[in-house]
Write a structure and sequence with these properties.
Length: about 300
């Protein structure tokens, strides 16, 4: 069973259409929501100060361009050739100064001297635990003194819900998998041993009956699991928010964590107490529909 071909030029071009759509928040959030999230990060995480930002899994540069408009210097890395191409063209047209690199964030070099490294929209959950640890360790190494990592991850219940979705079939005249008519069969299950949702997609060409099989897994973490993941990557929790706007949102599918290198100067006692309190909260998180790229495949296939 093949992995979903995020880096295939044709597939990524079709995905780019969904990233740029203002009809849904599936591949990327709509611009109005992105602007609110960027404003919150600018104000509450960066203190309104110009910063050097690295966006891992940047997509078509929707966040980085908004940050650049607020005076930040941005670098993005993504696996999708169409998204990176669009981001580069936008940066050139706007003169934003943003730079973009095509590559797999598991393997490429991140550079150094960033005030903020961000990995959002549940992207961390698509990686196996060892890769997630490596990515976060590389993010920590890319920080300048005083820098931090911003992580938006799926809640345990959101991933558990993805693993419990009923099987479905869908016909399309065209869509994410092809410009030609096709049928998609979808099934999900929950792997309790590994705490992961597993999803399988069977794409059948309407003209030839050729079958392509794709599989994906989404790793779940509870609060203790995220704390352990951060610690194993040389990071420690400093702040936690229910969303990238800082407010409770209807879906409750994500948790936002801000982390500092564990070797950095200790936080003031008040901040330590707050971080400890936040780490103990949200023990019973709501089950949601799931967002981000992986559930998108089900919604747009």
């Amino acid at each position: 069973m093949d992995k979903i071909p995020w880096d295939d030029p044709d597939f990524s071009a079709r995905m780019l259409v969904e990233h740029l759509s203002q009809a849904h928040d599936a591949a990327s959030r709509r611009l109005e929501r992105i602007r609110r999230q960027v404003a919150f990060i600018h104000r509450s995480v960066l203190g309104g100060n110009p910063a050097r930002i690295l966006d891992l899994g940047c997509g078509p540069g929707l966040y980085t361009e908004q940050f650049a408009a607020l005076g930040h210097t941005c670098v993005g890395i993504d696996f999708s050739p169409a998204s990176v191409g669009h981001a580069r063209l936008t940066a050139e047209e706007r003169g934003s100064g943003c730079t973009y690199h095509l590559g797999d964030i598991r393997y490429v070099e991140y550079g150094r001297g960033f005030d903020l490294v961000m990995l959002i929209f549940g992207e961390i959950n698509v990686f196996r635990r060892s890769d997630a640890q490596s990515i976060l360790a590389k993010a920590r190494a890319a920080l300048r003194p005083g820098g931090r990592v911003l992580l938006e991850a799926h809640t345990w219940d959101a991933v558990r819900g993805m693993g419990g979705e009923p099987p479905t079939w869908t016909t399309r005249s065209h869509g994410l998998y092809s410009v030609q008519p096709y049928l998609v069969l979808h099934e999900s299950f929950w792997n309790a041993e590994h705490g992961a949702a597993v999803q399988r997609h069977y794409v059948i060409d309407a003209a030839t009956a050729e079958v392509r099989r794709y599989g994906q897994s989404i790793q779940a973490y509870d609060d203790a699991g995220y704390a352990a993941l951060l610690e194993s990557s040389g990071l420690r929790l400093a702040d936690r928010y229910p969303s990238l706007t800082g407010a409770e949102e209807d879906d409750g599918d994500f948790v936002v964590m801000v982390a500092h290198p564990a070797s950095s100067r200790p936080l003031p006692r008040s901040s330590q107490d707050r971080a400890a309190r936040l780490a103990g909260e949200h023990a019973g998180m709501r089950t949601g529909s799931g967002s981000g790229l992986l559930p998108l495949v089900r919604r747009l296939q």
